[in-house]
Design a protein that fits this description.
By secondary structure, the protein is of the alpha+beta class. The protein is built from nine helices and eight strands. 14% of the residues are buried.
C-alpha cells in the first residue's frame, strides 16, 4: 500500500511539473516541433516517466535533472529567438521541394523525402496534379507549404470586385449551458443583449448547450434537445 501511495504521489508530481514546464516553454514546443523542440520533448518525457514510476531512483535527483534540462531547453529557445544563425542550427530552416514547378530531387534526397510522401502531402491539400504547384516548401515543423501557379489559384471576392461584408472574430457566448461572462465583457456585449437573443429563439439559457456570435455577426444556438427523431450514429 505504501508503494502504491508513493507511486500515485510521484505520478501526480510528475504531471504537475510537466504542466509547469510546458507552460514555461510555450505553445511552440507543442505546435511546431523543431529539432531542439523534439529533443527536449523526448528527454523531458523520459525523465518524467522515471519520476513517476522508477521508485529505485531518488525523487530529488530526477527533479534536479528535469529542472536542469528545462533550463537548457529554455536557454536554447531564448538564444534561437535572439540570434538567427543559432536559430538555423538549433531549429533548422525551411527547404524548397518544388521551385518554379520543378521538383528539386537533390533536396528531397537530403531530407529522405520520397515522391510518394510528396504526392500524399499534395493530395491532403486537394492538389491531385503536381503541375498545379509553383512552389512547395518543407517547413521547420515538418509541414509542407504550397503555392499554386497563378492559373490554378482560386478566385477571390476581390478578383470579382464583389462587396465584402465586415467580419468579426467569433465570440462564444454560452458553453455547456453557462454564460461566458469574460467573452461578453471583452467584446462590449451585455447580459441584456444576450438574453434578448435567447428570447428571440424562444429559449432559456438552461436550454442552450452552445451559443456563438459568428464572424458575420449572426448568433448561432445549439439546444440540448435537438429534437431529432432519427439521429445518425446514435450510440
Amino acid at each position: 500500500m505504501e508503494h502504491i501511495l508513493e507511486m500515485v504521489g510521484r505520478a501526480a508530481l510528475a504531471f504537475a511539473i510537466m504542466m509547469m514546464i510546458t507552460r514555461l516553454l510555450g505553445k511552440q514546443t507543442i505546435a511546431q516541433m523543431t529539432y531542439h523542440d523534439f529533443v527536449a520533448a523526448i528527454t523531458l518525457g523520459a525523465l518524467t516517466a522515471n519520476l513517476a514510476f522508477n521508485v529505485q531512483m531518488k525523487m530529488w535527483h530526477l527533479i534536479t535533472a528535469l529542472l536542469t534540462f528545462t533550463g537548457i531547453a529554455y536557454l536554447l529557445m531564448f538564444l534561437s529567438l535572439r540570434y538567427r544563425p543559432l536559430r538555423k542550427w538549433f531549429s533548422g530552416q525551411p527547404t524548397m521541394m518544388i521551385q518554379n514547378g520543378k521538383i528539386l530531387e537533390e533536396n528531397m534526397r537530403k531530407l529522405k523525402f520520397s515522391l510518394d510522401t510528396l504526392n500524399q502531402e499534395l493530395r491532403e491539400r486537394n492538389i491531385y496534379n503536381i503541375e498545379e504547384v509553383q512552389f512547395a516548401v518543407l517547413e521547420l515543423n515538418g509541414e509542407i507549404s504550397i503555392l499554386r501557379k497563378p492559373e490554378y489559384l482560386p478566385v477571390t471576392r476581390k478578383d470579382l470586385k464583389l462587396k465584402t461584408d465586415r467580419q468579426w472574430f467569433p465570440v462564444e457566448l454560452i458553453m455547456d449551458g453557462q454564460i461566458v461572462q469574460d467573452n461578453l465583457n471583452q467584446n462590449n456585449l451585455t447580459i441584456e443583449w444576450l438574453m434578448s437573443q435567447v428570447q428571440k429563439k424562444g429559449l432559456t439559457v438552461a436550454e442552450v448547450n452552445y451559443a456563438v456570435k459568428s464572424s458575420n455577426g449572426h448568433v448561432y444556438f445549439d439546444r440540448y434537445d435537438d429534437q431529432m427523431s432519427n439521429p445518425i450514429d446514435k450510440e
